[in-house]
Amino acid sequence: MIEPRRPVDRPPLPVLAVCHLDGECMLDGELFSLAALPARLAERPPGRVDMQQIPAALVATDDPAELLATLDRRFGRQDAPNFMLWQWSLSLRPATVWLGAGETTAYEALTPHLSWFGWAARRGTFHRKGGARRYAVLDVYAWTDAGKILDGYAGSMVAQLARFATDLQAFCREQHARTVTTAAALASVMLRDPRFWPRAGRRKVPRATNDRARRQLPGNHYRLLSLSRAGQPSRVHGAVLELDQIAAHHAAALNQPFPASSDLYAWGRFYADPRKLRITDCVATAEQVTGEHGLLLAAVRGTRDSRALADDPLTLPAAAHHGVRWRHVWTSETGLLERCGAEIVGVAAGWTTNQVDEGLNAYAWHALAELQAADPARKSWLKQALLATYGLLAAKPREFRQLNRWGDGDQMTVTMHTGQNLHGRLRVVGETESQTCNVIWRGLIEARVRAETVSYARELRDAGRRVISLYADAVYIAAAGGDPPPRAGWRVTQELTHVQFTTPTAFTSDQVVKAPGVPREARTG
User: Fold this and answer.
1) DSSP letter (8 states) at residue 434
2) What predicted TM-score, i.e. pTM, was given to this entire model?
3) How is the chain split into domains, by residue range?
4) What does the alpha-carbon distance between residue 411 and residue 430 come to, in Å, rounded to a whole number?
5) What is the pLDDT of residues 322-375, one digit of tens each?
6) What is the 3-state secondary structure (H, E, C) of 178-241?
7) Could you tell me which residues come within 8 angstroms of residue 1 by beta carbon, excluding any fewer than 6 positions away?
8) What is the pLDDT of residues 465-493, one digit of tens each?
9) CATH code at 222-249+442-522
């Protein structure tokens, strides 16, 4: 069962900004040098009486590893006062490390991320209540486009760090939640918010259902219609209009019926290998599953059986084939599937229910309201945090590894990028799946976004416009002909000139260059 979080009503944390780039620190508006930081933290030596009177603090920094290295050299020495009470915690997250520029060889490594540091009440423990001085760490550069986030706040860099941390804490308090330091943590809080899921009996979706649905996630849909011949350069388009869905994922989640997790079950021949199924294995017709929400394993007659539709590029992947084939079909796309000319002959299995959970609809409405009310500085980081909620729905099961200076577990040494070795005790929690994981919900959102893109592209083509490319939640059309036919939820974001698509996911133009996987500084155009 998923327990909704309890509202948190605590006093705001003092904000400490530490800027290694400029060598400055700021504590509640007071500016001092980075060299004075250890002395400021040790002004009141840790002790049981003092620690009960000193609240925790939120530390915003541009380099957590350097910060920990500096403090550990000061407080982690055996001759330092309260040496046995000094404590820190690193989360070890898996990351792909490439061996060099242009290399195709990589290996998986655990990268340390500082979660908090402080002094424990007694050796080997760290209690949050009454007897501990704890500093939560906000790694600003763990957020996407951290440079743009900081530029949204006025002042020097240390002031920008402080203002970002203060704004993040203020938003958490507005949501009656504990202060968090990452977008994923804020998303996790939202998925347990009693405003959207008030019932304590919300059932966890079985892991087997999530595993099956995860393999069928639609992802981002790209389709380049103006393909060049092999060995020839791609065509350069003089003027192109970029049409974009407005808040695509929030808009998709706003009106999409989501199956209630407490009633979501697998039915039919869900245990069978789809490659070995026959039409006689169908247990339901398309009409019998009308009103069901989730994922279907269906026999689909493809659009290529019709001469008029054989070469249609603006169709769904589940329909682009000859004959009858088994396809996983999301219920949010069944209407468009039929309009594309495909037909569901029968259904062999499903992960569906006709019962609806409106919690995610309410969350999408709340997210859109928060984004509309946010000022530009807050919106720069709030947008990714609110979108991360949908990403967590499909989070893969993983191990949790935490390295603590004191505690239980095997001894382990990690090397920070500063070159300092930190010795601690490794705490490992076996591979687990989040209680809020619901891949069916995530798939329905992605499928609805894809269906909306394909549907609008077909509408534009029927209106006589030349569609050049489908780019996830955007459509690119030739600018000749003026403004396109309007459609609710869409907007013309910009007009691009001298556009050249090199792949379905990459293009260059005079205004913008999109090259996924290529660092910004290495892009040309």
Assistant:
1) -
2) 0.90
3) 15-181+398-432, 222-249+442-522, 261-354
4) 18
5) 889 999 999 999 999 999 889 999 999 999 999 999 999 999 999 999 999 999
6) CCCCCHHHHHHHHCCCCCCCCCCCECCCCHHHHHHHHCCCCCCCEEECCCCCCCCCCCEEEEEE
7) 200, 201, 202, 203, 204
8) 999 999 999 999 999 888 898 899 999 99
9) 3.90.1600.10
